[in-house]
Task: inverse folding
């Protein structure tokens, strides 16, 4: 029976591919969610980067936006710039319910994390407020965290951080200051599972780092030893 199950799973996957063929979110060609041609166009983040927000710049020192920003988060890292095919893939996952992208996007995160390790004992997705979770039906960051947890073997915690305020989406704010004010006090944390632990926050995209920093402040108040952010893409 043990030898039969993998074959059954493989046959099911083939059947699903025949009934619902994959198409590239970048160019629409059939075969993969991101075809080889579109993968070659992806905007990778290469060093040097700002050691705090993770954005690329001309030297490995704090960028102008971070120089005077007193943060709770130890740093933010990401493999990609939020543009092109990665931007479209995140939008398909986040707004069009294409959850089939999760394994691929999680593998890309895993490849980055393997080459650029972060200190962490637990993966923790940035939570959605209950109202937005009911509207969307899922938290894309939690899906990514769970899949990444399978690949890395790092435990995933979806209970130690909650979003208690139903704030305006960060994408609708117009300035860094407004983003920081928008999420100030928006989260609550519990210490049971994270006290003394290194936490890696998982999210899909960040612009100013305000949400990740607000999460980090809450987690450190609850006893987390360190908090790093790992996101799929950083908006330039």
Result:
């Amino acid at each position: 029976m043990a030898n039969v199950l993998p074959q059954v799973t493989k046959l099911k996957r083939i059947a699903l591919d025949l009934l619902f063929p994959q198409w590239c979110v970048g160019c629409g060609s059939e075969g993969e969610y991101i075809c080889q041609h579109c993968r070659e166009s992806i905007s990778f983040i290469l060093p040097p980067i700002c050691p705090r927000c993770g954005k690329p710049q001309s030297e490995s020192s704090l960028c102008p936006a971070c120089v005077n920003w007193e943060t709770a988060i130890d740093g933010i890292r990401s493999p990609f710039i939020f543009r092109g095919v990665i931007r479209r893939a995140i939008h398909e996952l986040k707004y069009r319910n294409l959850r089939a992208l999760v394994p691929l996007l999680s593998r890309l995160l895993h490849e980055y994390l393997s080459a650029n390790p972060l200190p962490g004992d637990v993966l923790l997705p940035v939570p959605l407020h209950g109202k937005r979770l009911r509207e969307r039906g899922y938290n894309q960051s939690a899906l990514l965290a769970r899949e990444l947890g399978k690949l890395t073997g790092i435990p995933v915690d979806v209970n130690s951080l909650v979003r208690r305020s139903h704030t305006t989406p960060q994408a609708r704010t117009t300035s860094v200051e407004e983003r920081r004010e928008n999420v100030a006090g928006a989260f609550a944390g519990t210490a049971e599972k994270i006290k003394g632990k290194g936490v890696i926050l998982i999210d899909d995209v960040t612009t100013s780092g305000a949400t990740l920093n607000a999460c980090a402040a809450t987690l450190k108040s609850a006893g987390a030893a360190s908090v790093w952010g790992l996101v799929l893409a950083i908006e330039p």
